[in-house]
Every structure is written in structure tokens, then in C-alpha cells.
Design goal:
about 200 residues, about 25% strand
Length: about 200
């Protein structure tokens, strides 16, 4: 199932349909400011497990990430000191994943690693969904192999063709990008860029 959404003036019913689906434990594919991603309600462990199976990732070995609506909601789910807060404030929303120590508000599946990736994509569609959901959205980029056509992670119709039977809804937000987010590890004394992606860090 595919749903066309726009950067502004979406119908309230369409947005509420996405939020209700997430609250019911559903899985969506949606646009970000980098690649299209798979997401679910970040506090629903069974939905997170479904995504881990689709992505073939082991949550005991791989960090999981969440989309937060704003900076104040980040502090509910991760431990943020003053310098990290200021760094995120300078760079978010944007194409970054900040690795922080997680809090006890997150499901047990996150606490296996004790760390969580924080995303606030500069994309109005997922921003509005996160606002209405009023909860974190577990997020991971679409699986992609180098021998595949890139359009299968950028073109919503081809994304639906490939992943439609694995997820509950594909949001068509237009053509997606191919860049990844810049990952910044903030769990130590100083922030460390561990993957340079689309985002250029303003330190």
C-alpha cells in the first residue's frame, strides 16, 4: 500500500492514518533528508523486532536509532549533557545520527547496547508524523546491496514493489536521495565523527 504525502498541506486524515498505523504496531517506509527509511513506533518492541528481521540486523550487535520530534524529546530517551545539547542544537534538524547513551524510557531491545542513535531529519513529512505521534520513531535506512539498481531505494513506486509485502505502508514523498547521514558518536569525552555522510558538522 502506498500513500502520497507532500511537504505541506497534507490532509489531517492521511496523517492520522499513518499515526494510527504506527500506534497499532505497523511498519512504514518514509522519506528523510537522506535515504528512504523503515520505521515503526519506537516503544513497540514487536514492531522493532520485525524491522530487525527485514534489515537482517541483530539488535545485540547493532545500534538502533530513533527519530525525535524536537530537542526536548531527545532528553526523554537519551542522556544529554550541555555540550552535546548545544552541538545538536547547532546541527538539527539535519542529516545526522548522534550516538548517545540511552535512557530507561526505551524498550529493552535498545538497552542491549545501552546506546541509541538520534535522528531529527530535515524532512517536513516525517517531522509532522513524529509531532502527531508524540513518541519516538525507530528508524533504519532501507537495505541495499551494491549490485542492485539504486532506484529500488529512491523511487517510491519501486520501493513499494520491492518492500510492499514486508511493510504495512510506503509513504511516497517524492524521489529520495542516496546519501547517508553523518554519524557522530557523543558517548565519550569529545564528539567523534565515525561516518561522514551528507551532514557537515557545525562544531
Amino acid at each position: 500500500m502506498i500513500l502520497r504525502l507532500y511537504n505541506q498541506n497534507n490532509s489531517r486524515d492521511d496523517l492520522q492514518r499513518v499515526v494510527d498505523l504506527l500506534c497499532d504496531g505497523g511498519i512504514i517506509i518514509y522519506p528523510t533528508d537522506t535515504r528512504y527509511a523503515i520505521g515503526c513506533h519506537g516503544l513497540k518492541e514487536r514492531a522493532i523486532e520485525r524491522i530487525c528481521r527485514i534489515k537482517e540486523i541483530d539488535p545485540r550487535k547493532n545500534n538502533l536509532s530513533i527519530v525525535c520530534y524536537n530537542l526536548s524529546s531527545i532528553s526523554e530517551y537519551a542522556k544529554v549533557d550541555n555540550s552535546t545539547f548545544k552541538l545538536m542544537k547547532r546541527n538539527l534538524p539535519g542529516a545526522f545520527t548522534f550516538i548517545l547513551n540511552g535512557s530507561n524510557r526505551l524498550p529493552k531491545i535498545f538497552r542491549n547496547r545501552r546506546e541509541v542513535g538520534i535522528r531529527m531529519p530535515q524532512n517536513p513529512i516525517i517531522h509532522e508524523i513524529a509531532r502527531l505521534l508524540d513518541a519516538p520513531i525507530m528508524t533504519t535506512t532501507l537495505p541495499y546491496r551494491e549490485d542492485e539498481e539504486i532506484e529500488y531505494i529512491t523511487d517510491p513506486e519501486l520501493i513499494e514493489e520491492k518492500f510492499g509485502d514486508k511493510v504495512d505502508l510506503v509513504i511516497d514523498g517524492g524521489m529520495g536521495g542516496t546519501d547517508q547521514s553523518t554519524i557522530v558518536d557523543c558517548t565519550g569525552d569529545e564528539p567523534v565523527i565515525i561516518r561522514q555522510g551528507k551532514g557537515v558538522l557545525n562544531e
